[in-house]
Write a structure and sequence with these properties.
The chain is elongated and about 60 Å long. It has one domain. By secondary structure, the chain is mostly helical. Helix 2 packs across helix 3 and helix 2 packs across helix 4.
């Protein structure tokens, strides 16, 4: 795996759009639910938000495990883990 592919996977994030899609609501609803309690346009969080957050977090964990596995299969990484500086 090259540097760009590995770091693209590492830097991937969950967006407002991802959470909105998971919950079947608009992005505006997510943004308004995230406003401070004193904000006039604040909304209550969508129903089921806790499960949606858990599912999205589990997806990220799964993706990171895949990234780690791919990186660990690289012989150069194995050399680095065994103390050899020749792999870089």
């Amino acid at each position: 795996m090259d540097f760009k592919t590995a770091t693209d996977a590492l830097f991937e994030r969950v967006s407002h759009e991802d959470l909105a899609a998971q919950l079947g609501v608009s992005v505006a609803t997510i943004r308004q639910a995230r406003l401070g309690v004193s904000a006039k346009s604040r909304r209550a969080p969508p129903k089921g938000w806790q499960l949606a957050v858990i599912q999205l977090a589990e997806n990220r964990i799964h993706n990171y495990h895949q990234l780690i596995g791919e990186m660990m299969r690289d012989p150069k990484v194995g050399k680095l883990l065994n103390g050899s500086n020749e792999a870089a």
